Amino acid sequence: MPESKYFAGLDIGGTTVKAVLVDQNDEPTSPPVEVRSLVKEGYRKTFTQLDEALDKLCAGHGIPRDAIAGVGLDVPAPSSNGVIWSRANLGDDWVGTDIRAGYSAHAGLPVFMTNDCNAAAVGEYALRKSCAGGLLLVAPGTGLGGGFVLPGGRCHEGANGLALELGHVPVPVREDDGSLPACSCGLHGCLEAWVSLMALRRRLGIELAKPEWADHPLNADPAPVEEKAFKIRDLADEGDALARRLFRQQAEILGRGLAGIVFAFDPGLVVIGGGLAEAGFRDEFLTWVREGFEAHTWPAYVHSPVEPGRETTRFEWAVGGDAAAAIGMACTARDLFGRI
Questions:
Q1: Within this chain, do residues 306 and 327 fall inside the same structural domain, yes or no?
Q2: Is 1 contained in some domain?
């Protein structure tokens, strides 16, 4: 083994595998790399893509493969102890397979594995060198994911690797007709059913059917509502009243849901990831989240009762972007395998 050790983070997504390399001090050694993801073609095919990503990392830094002392791997699916529990966006042969052990044997390296939201939470923690408490990540996207990092940088995964499925925490918010919205998981009234792209599509269709929006430009657009929803963020950036109403509703309900989660975990820092981190109205969105949070929590979770000027729960946008999960896995590999 070379004297200098390096640790790789491999983030398996539906379209790309993102990879980073860190040294023994958790410092990135070269820019992240990407290769095509072949998850639909099976895990064995994906192993070849992981190898390609490692080769590109090593070539970019000018080191041999045997300088890598460990790998952190994340997958876009629930798993426990390296075993995939459900198909999600993967090929059929992933389910029930011990991917961690399989890739460890394939690559000849120790491997740690978790899900993508846990990995991104650890990455956000690693990028905040001064973070001394916990960190709760919530990431609105097509669905709503989350992860919780304990003080010191270890992710809380739960007994079965299923902790922090924040999107499926119930919230007591009803539609105009009094019903609870259906969630993709099969339940009703989940946080994800209000805060996600799927929720945005549903709410957009409901709002456009109301008389007050009869003259809205989107009603003249012949595209299906699924396509119209992709225009809402840009419209909100431009100050469109309907778009801002939809995002304000999502933000306030997200804050309400986070209030319940903070009661349980008291993380100190809540980080919001996903595409909205790049939105032009993101400062207002964060204000709306805080308003929803403060309306449904105790004052002590907002400011310290003994140090009134100190925030007890801070809200920040994610800073890691698309590389956060890979960074989190590389740093975890360094923590776990740095002394091997």
A1: no
A2: no
Number of domains composing the chain: 2
pTM score, whole prediction: 0.93
Residue 70, domain extent:
6-127+322-337
Q: Taking 90 as the threshold, does the pLDDT of residue 138 lie above it? A: yes
CATH of the domain at 190: 3.30.420.40
DSSP-derived 3-state class of residue 302: coil
- Taking CA atoms, 272 is separated from 64, 104, 107, 260, 307, in Å, by 37, 32, 34, 16, 26
| 8 A C-beta contact, residue 180 and residue 188 | yes
Helix count and strand count (H, E) for the chain: 10, 11
Q: Strand pairing partners for 115?
A: 75
- What's the whole-number mean pLDDT along residues 84-111? 92
| Sign of the torsion formed by the C-alpha atoms of 240, 243, 246 and 249 | negative
Cα 36 to Cα 12: distance, rounded to the nearest angstrom: 10
The alpha carbon of 214 is separated from its chain's Cα centroid by a whole number of angstroms, namely 36
